[in-house]
Here is the input.
Amino acid sequence: MLLGTSLTVACTDTLVTLAKGWLCWDDERAVQEFSNGYICLECYRTVSKYSSSESYLKTELLRRNTDPEVAEIRVTKRKAKRGEQAVKVVVTQSSYEKIYTLSPSKQAIAKSLGRSSHKALFRHVSHHCDLKLSMLRQVGEMLQSEFRVLYKSDFMKSDLQALKLFSWDRLYLMLKSKAPTLFTLLKSCIPEHSTKKKYIVVVCAAILASTHKRWTPVHSYVSVILHAGHAAKQVYNRLQKLGICFSDVTTRKIIDNMGVDHDRHVLDWVKKLKPTISPNQVKGSIIAASYSGPLNGSSPECSVSSSPFGVAVSPSLLPTSPLSDSSAVQTPSEMSPLSSFSRMLADDNNTDSESEKSASQVSLQASSETVSASEDDVVGWCGFRIVGDNIDKTVKPRDMRHNHQSASLHYFHAYAVKDRVDVSDLSSDMPLIVSSDIDFNSLLPSHEDAATLEANMCTLMIRILIKHIPGLNYLSTMVLQHIPHMYSDVMMKKSEVVPLGVFLKNENKLDEMVDILDELHKYVPSLRTMQRFEYSGDGEAEVAEIDVDHFCHIPFGGDQLTVARIRGCQNIRKNADNGRMRLDAFIPILEDWHTKMCFLKVVWSHLYKTSSSLDVGTLYQLRTLINRRNVTSDVSKDMNACEDFFELVVSSHVIAAALQKSDVASMSDFVLKLTTSNSPTEQLAALESLVKSISSEFVNISFPCKHQDTSDHIQQYTMEVLSLGLFYLEFKDAIREGDGLRVLRCYKYLLPLFRGSGHKNYCIEALHLLISYYYTLPPRYAAQMLWGRFINTHGKPGHNISADLHMEHLNRMCKDSVSHLGANKTPAAILRVGKALGPLSELIAKFDSTTGIVTTKSHTRRSEEEDLSKLVSELMQSGCFLQQKGRFHHNFKSIVTNGIISCINGQKFTKWIKRNNAEFLHEVHHSC
Here is the structure.
């Protein structure tokens, strides 16, 4: 029999809607019976059981209808419909048999079970309120049991090791094996797509965090990402309440743990380099020793001087393939004098005293313990260089008092970068070198250098014309976009950079710089051996044993100030007892970005004057024309703005020179004249011929200076802008391609440029760089110095930058991470940030790769074509490339092409080179 409650209502549709929402009905038959005035008795009991549902329904009806009398509810019994059959369940046991008659609401469940229809069974069970609630309670207990299993698994580990092993697939499979019920529920809820695994893991992590306050690697990663994005403290604390991330305090602990082994890769390189050290490789590490009296005397006289690095350039360093730079580097014997000035250098060099050479060749026979290194211990080349620079930060207090003022922090930041070029097959022997062995012609540009420089400048001019003239864009696939060199394939690989952290020392203080080098010495592969020396004491021959340090020397790069500080530290420690205390292991190397900035300062001091706004064609007048107000007289204030402006001016000069040589007035006429009937190959050949004529007529950066007509100083100014601009582009392109030989050639020209412009310090460092490569460094360290000065963070060709520029990028990242700390900019915070830069970058990169996030490091640049068109029109109207005698700019009345080099006194320059060379060799004689 079917029992029920008969409902008399005024608005059946409203009650049906209420009952469906309350009882979760979606069965059409039940809805029809309810609409006819009947409701299942079991459902009625269920409704009545929870929250007085009968009064709730009546209240709703009273609220929705004006007449409360029509909402009366009365209970009656309904007879079973004709044709309905009862469903019975027979339970048979050994002693008895019992028959259960199922209620109508459970009959469909039994029928579905008998048919083995799982979908129908679940549908009918879900329609039955009691069974549905019981089933959900059982599912909840199963989930709780699976949660307890997850708590004990690696799914819940949120420490640093879990972050390093983080993988969406790993967590997905772990969830599938440890919590199958939860996994199945989440998988059925989330639609099918490529990122389904990530969503399932994230939802599971959110459930665990919100219900049981348990944290997963997902929460750790979210916290780390927020830290990398410089989120404020309030962001952590608010999201932590929602179970999305850790608090600010916990996140700082994670960052602290990241910095514990931040230099593990460098220490691993050091370990692999140690087997390459052999005392037999260091020839004459002690070249002179004289003793007076026994070693244990009260005041023995002992003088020990160490040998220099030094060999001539090795033929193995020269290019072996016929590339564009194959003639760029020659051995000193192959260098020919360029002029009387070069011959004067050679003649003066031959007059050096022979006593210096004979005295320095005195060496004692020393027997040292040999250390054998198995070849299996060294896997590949793990050489590296260290690059450092100062990092300055000013902390301004919110409440300034007489005892609480602004603090100016001056610290030192460093990183290590692994060599991409394998130089393990090059010799590290260190024979002696003296001043008389140096051919000074090798330090200055040769004829081959000039020819190669001119060819590269022509290539750069072709690129400019094809890029900016629309009618020539189709030739872009035919022009040489990357000038090749002997290691082009290696320099397109991504560099392996390891930040070494911030040192709370100031490099401008010599004693603190010594402490920095002492601390960095742990990254130097070293070996100490015992050497025996025979000497005469009290008329008898005696034997002395001395500890000698052997190193795998580490190049130490930086700007001019950092390099000078390193040499100063080595100088004050030169009388120390051993090589470690003398800091002999470091080879100071000048880097290129600060050198490029110094050269741009040379250009600015020579060609940029704020009083020349009325001199058409000058840098300041062109700057005013296109309203580049971010270009200032001081290049160091905004290097990027000055560089961008100067490159645009050089491009406009190249185009204007091409238009002048082609005798056309606009770029559109230039295209029509060049593309009349020639094929693309012939057009490219014609373009090459055009830029060669421009180079021969308007470009002059030779050394020594060639004769020139100086009657038109406006034309001379224009040629000077074009010449120095193309040389700047050559220097920049050499860095982009990672071509060490081209960079070295540029330093040959920068040497007289810095000398003529009065930049003494950079001139000295340029001289030291050339002498070190050609003479005082062994082939292995010379190759490291030449090819390890570039960083490629993209892993693409033509994307190299200078090592010191990457140092500036790390400084900016460190400052940005500290800037959001407010008043908490403490030394401890700076240390934490500096050590975590490397591991944090690795984790972010790993997250992006596993999540499928594609990041780009290139900057979007606005079009410069409108500015370029204005500059070209201004130059064409002024006729600056036409020669007209007697013209001059009022602020540059006596300027001439190549004027910086032409003002050099050859005799004084000769003496200056010889004097600084002697001083440099004297310093090198105290290094091993």
Summary: The two ends are 107 Å apart (CA to CA).
